[in-house]
């Protein structure tokens, strides 16, 4: 990755819902990445200790900004709030559950900073010669994600390997032409459908990933997959 301009600012948008177990660790991991950044945390009506932890973190770290929803509205709503508050040159989405490693930010940023892309997806399913043994997703999650990605590609004409990835990185200007309507996990196919209509360059890079199972608090289930399939069709025809 080329040297960053001195005034470059990365905005990390992180939705939070009942993540007291991982919240301090993931914020520490984000702040440890040696890139000038702001971390926009959106508490989506947490019912555990997440909100008090966030208030503690914002007092300790000047680069952390916290916004609160009065009730749980869903990941899409939390991202919409975070996107509205973003001030950086580039925005990246980060989940709060430690499945995605913030050390991948330089890899996500490289195609944008080198002028090769406007939007970058971090794919869990691209083969990486430098790290062939990296952990993979569980089979049923893998199968569901590949099915949804295939359906999305069929409607958008893109050739992605991982439409459902959390790691979506893009120039902030891209948000000027996108209004997120989804409230829950259908935000992924919605964002992809709307980006596909724009005159932007979309790139994928391989990333490391440590998938959680349901015993560890994974929140996505088969109902979300059905909703995502409907969203793929809906946002293809919606204008």
> What's the number of extended β-strand segments?
7
Question: What is the mean predicted local confidence, pLDDT?
Answer: 91
The ordered string of helix (H) and strand (E) elements is: EHEHEHEHEHEHEH
Q: Uncertain segments of ≥5 residues (pLDDT<50)?
A: none
Spatial strand order of the main sheet: 3-2-1-4-6-5-7
- Helix-and-strand structural type: alpha/beta
Instruction: Based on the coordinates given, report the CATH architecture.
Output: Alpha-Beta Complex
CATH fold-type name: Spore Coat Polysaccharide Biosynthesis Protein SpsA, Chain A
What is the first-to-last residue Cα distance?
36 Å
- Strand portion: 15-25%
The radius of gyration over CA amounts to 17 Å
The general outline is: globular
CATH class: Alpha Beta
Quick one: CATH superfamily? Spore Coat Polysaccharide Biosynthesis Protein SpsA, Chain A
Largest sheet: 7 strands, mixed
Number of domains: 1
The oligomeric state of the chains shown is single chain
Which percent bin holds the helix content?
Answer: 25-40%
How many H/I helical runs?
A: 7
Describe the structure.
The chain is an alpha/beta fold and 239 residues long. The protein is built from seven helices and seven strands. The protein has one domain (10-237): Spore Coat Polysaccharide Biosynthesis Protein SpsA, Chain A (Alpha-Beta Complex), CATH 3.90.550. The termini are far apart. A seven-stranded mixed β-sheet has the order 3-2-1-4-6-5-7, with helices on both faces.
